[in-house]
Amino acid sequence: FFPQVDSANTGRVLASDAAVFLKKSGLTDLVLGKIWDLADTDGKGILNKQEFFVALRLVACAQNGLDVSLSSLNLPVPPPRFADTSSPLLLSGAASADVPWAVKLEDKAKYDAIFDSLNPVNGLLSGDKVKPVLLNSKLPVDILGRVWELSDIDRDGMLDRDEFAVAMFLVYCALEKEPVPMSLPAALVPPSKRKPVSVPGAMPLIPSSLSAKESHQSLPPVGVLAAKTPLTQ
């Protein structure tokens, strides 16, 4: 991966080049920012080979639902995956039509019933309607924020029936003490949201045009909850 980013063979990688490359991991800007801060130890905006390896390792941790922290660096994880034809490793078979959806039929029926009980408008639920259901799980607000971010696949600030099922699935996983992943695994992307992509077997999980500002605007005010509601529990 390093020669791909350091094409001039200078032994270092500039922030701008690294950002373009790391975005292909499908992780959110927020997570990539954290990875950069940990890898760029002296804060110069340049990574040497060793620091770039740290960034790659943290990408792999995030893609496998592990904490993005230096303490995760020695944990065994598969190599990071990047959606790019020239990568040594393609996102193998990600979100292709043959991957069965992780949400089982009987669970989907249960989630659909909850969805309908929340009075969707034109088949969509706003963040305000979903928020009480999420809070009811008593999960930490930052986890719920990530659940929302992963389930609002088309980034419109609303959840349709399939996206709501993804949100519920992630909530139940978190309640079973399973870590909520940093990016949506291929098997969790609803079949209705799977787009044919030009790169065989690869699926960009975030639109590259989406700036951090825009993605924050589409999030419901789950993050501000802590400030508004004293979470006594």
Describe this structure in words.
The chain is mainly α. Among the domains are: 1-72, EF-hand (Recoverin, domain 1), CATH 1.10.238.10; 105-192, EF-hand (Recoverin, domain 1, Orthogonal Bundle). 42% of the residues lie in helices and 5% in strands. It contains 10 helices and 4 strands, in the order αβααβααβααβααα. The strands form 2 sheets. A two-stranded antiparallel sheet has the order 1-2. The chain has a two-stranded antiparallel sheet with strand order 3-4. Helix 7 runs antiparallel to helix 8. It is elongated, with a radius of gyration of 19 Å.
Entry keywords:
Recoverin, domain 1, two-stranded antiparallel ribbon, calcium ion binding, mainly alpha, EF_Hand_1_Ca_BS, EPS15 factor, disordered C terminus, 5% strand, two-stranded antiparallel sheet, 233 residues
Write the layout of secondary structure elements.
Blueprint: H1 2-5, E1 12-14, H2 15-23, H3 29-39, E2 46-48, H4 49-63, H5 105-117, E3 124-126, H6 127-136, H7 141-151, E4 158-160, H8 161-175, H9 212-217, H10 225-228
Antiparallel strand pairs: 1-2, 3-4
Helix pairs in contact: 3-4, 5-8, 7-8
Describe the structure concisely.
This protein is elongated. The chain has 10 helices and 4 strands; from the N terminus they run αβααβααβααβααα.
Helix-strand string: HEHHEHHEHHEHHH
- The CATH homologous superfamily of the domain at 105-192 is called EF-hand
pLDDT below 50 for ≥5 consecutive residues: which ranges?
85-96, 197-233
Shape: elongated
CATH level-1 class of the domain at 105-192: Mainly Alpha
How much is the average pLDDT? 79
Please list the strands of the largest sheet in the order they lie side by side: 1-2
Report the span from N to C terminus. Answer: 46 Å
Number of strands: 4
Specify the helix fraction band: 40-55%
- The secondary-structure class comes to mainly alpha
Major sheet: 2 strands, antiparallel
**Beta-strand fraction estimate:** 5-15%
For the record, the CATH architecture of the domain at 105-192 stands as: Orthogonal Bundle
CATH topology of the domain at 105-192: Recoverin, domain 1
Domain EH: 1-83, 107-195
Protein name: EPS15 factor
InterPro entries: EF-hand-dom_pair, EF_Hand_1_Ca_BS, EF_hand_dom, EH_dom
Domain EF-hand: 27-62, 139-174
